[in-house]
Design brief:
The chain is mainly α. The chain has helices at residues 2-35, 43-64, 72-76, 80-112, 124-127, 130-154. It is built from 6 helices and no strands. The protein starts with a helix and ends in a 10-residue tail after the last helix. It has one domain (2-154).
Amino acid sequence: MRTLALVFKRMLEGISLGLLVLLALIVVLAVVYRTLGMSLIWYDELASVLLAWLTYFGAALAALKRAHLGFTGILTGSPLPTRKVMFWFSELCVYGFVLVCAYAGWYVLRIFGSESLVSLPIPLSVTQSVVPIGFVLFAIAQLASTRSAYEELVLQTTVREDFH
């Protein structure tokens, strides 16, 4: 399981890095064109979409590393039975929220139909598909890191962590 999680981590890192580099290149290209007195009419729309994709993939990577929002001090300072209940309750809340958001994102995709971006012939269903994809990736990342988080936070054992 740890090997799959490590492969998943590398995939998320690669995609996030690729999106970041592409976003930076587009913004720099737009600045150069604007400096030369020309303007790219599509760059701001595409940059916004890339930033959204980067945000969702980055959130999944943060979930894998357990670097998203959390209050581990409250959890680790509680007695063992309370830690177990709090841990599993928080996990269920995260899974519930993520799955509801993934479904909502998928549902919204059906509404766009044949609409496309204003400046480029890219369907909105492609650009907005990041919402369900991102939340599914977040759920997978959360699931992949649950065991090590349980060992570290609840059982308070030192785990050799390949995710960080």
